[in-house]
Amino acid sequence: MKIDVLLGLQWGDEGKGKLVDVLTPDYDVIARFQGGPNAGHTLEFNGIKHVTHNIPSGVFREDSINIIGNGVVLDPVIFKKEIEAVKDLGVDLGIRLMVSRKAHLIMPTHRILDAASEAAKGITKIGSTLKGIGPTYMDKTGRNGLRVGDIESPDFKKKYDFLTNKHLEILKQYDFEFNLEEFEIGWMDGIEAIKSFPLVNGEYAINKYLTEGKSVLAEGAQGSMLDIDFGSYPYVTSSNTICAGACTGLGLAPHKIGRVIGVFKAYCTRVGSGPFPTELLDETGEALRKYGSEYGATTGRPRRCGWLDLAVLKYSIMLSGVTELMMTKSDVLSTFDALQVCTAYKINGEVSDELPFDIDTPLEPMYEELPCWSEDLTGMTEKEDLPKELLDYIVFVEKEVGVPISYVSVGPDREQIIKM
Ligand code: GDP
Ligand code: IMO
Ligand code: MG
Description:
Layout: E1 3-8, H1 16-23, E2 29-32, E3 41-45, E4 48-52, E5 65-68, E6 73-74, H2 76-88, E7 97-100, E8 104-105, H3 108-121, H4 133-141, H5 156-171, H6 180-184, H7 187-195, E9 199-200, H8 202-211, E10 216-219, H9 244-250, E11 257-265, E12 268-270, H10 283-291, E13 304-306, E14 308-309, H11 310-320, E15 324-328, E16 338-347, E17 350-352, E18 364-371, H12 388-401, E19 405-409, E20 417-419
Parallel strand pairs: 1-10, 1-11, 2-5, 2-10, 5-7, 6-8, 7-9, 11-15, 14-16, 15-19
Antiparallel strand pairs: 3-4, 12-13, 16-17, 16-18, 19-20
Helix pairs in contact: 2-7, 3-4, 3-5
This protein binds guanosine-5'-diphosphate (GDP), 6-O-phosphoryl inosine monophosphate and magnesium ion.
């Protein structure tokens, strides 16, 4: 068997969580491969709205096995809270949730370092979610990190203290006040919570499932434009969010990748700092935020909004070898008279659909105007119900990017989905 990968093609929050939940009945195993609690994946079903951060979005389907892969950075405090919240909804994960021993732990001092580093950057700050993501991945690549498997070692506390002291030394360079004890509350309890689940050698577990003929879906976090290598550096996250990240984040050979499902919003949003070519700083942007309820699922911050950017979409499709697309939030656009779609940029007087190296390069988006639909899509269930203008929008995007759209989402609930 091959593994299918679902990932975001813009700046995150494309609706990945909802679509993983929709697709989970078709899979035996759901695996997160990168990122950590900077992610906020919203699921809505039976009148319940739930946001997952560290755990895979397959947890609410009774038979699914869920794996937190080695590429993930795990916050024990948030993990414990998530497990309790899921339990409150009547789901006991038991042995259905496994954690890779090679996943790295976010320590209290990683969160402090994140906050100190952002504060020191002033107006050049990344707009980090302040969950300790950057410092944890820095310790991973710096070969200092604390891993989930270390929990099982009798030296765990010693390792924890050693690294904490190292961080406290680094923090002396910052003019930043903090109370370590406050950040440490619940951390060791969280470690006990992690311990109560099977800790596995995730790379063996995943490959064994595939050999046994089980179907596996890899769930991406963030979006391709936040990728550490290919996003708008330095305004990015600290992991590889593209398809290659599923190989390194789970221990998979590239030829084991099957379908690559790219999720995108019918428009664009971004939360945090950094370039956003089609951003609308006017009443149209405000309308997108209002009708799309565009506020961060993790931090509650208002999301920046703008029109669909096909240059970005083509770039992300190229980087991940996307084989099919899923479009979300088409229902939000019903309120507009006409739609603008960016097909290329004018860069120094030349037309190009290639993203430049230098993020400060002035880009003038070039738009094509398309007619909009006015029908309320939220109750529609069949392709045949969809208005002509939306079907034209779909065909236009498919033609431009060369990849078919397999599902269109018309609302936040798991039932609000149309197979094309
Ligand atoms: P993720 O991080 O990619 O999982 O996305 P988020 O959960 O952060 O943000 C997506 C938001 O849009 C959530 O509030 C979802 O409930 C909501 N959503 C997902 N699909 C749709 C859709 O088709 N229409 C509308 N109106 N909302 C949607
Ligand atoms: P999901 O999985 C949207 C953004 C932050 C910030 C930058 C770096 O829900 O799509 P970090 O905390 O990683 O150091 O922040 O990346 N960011 C996200 N934006 N959705 C996310 O995840 C994000 N995760 C990080 O706002 O600009
Ligand atoms: Mg999100």
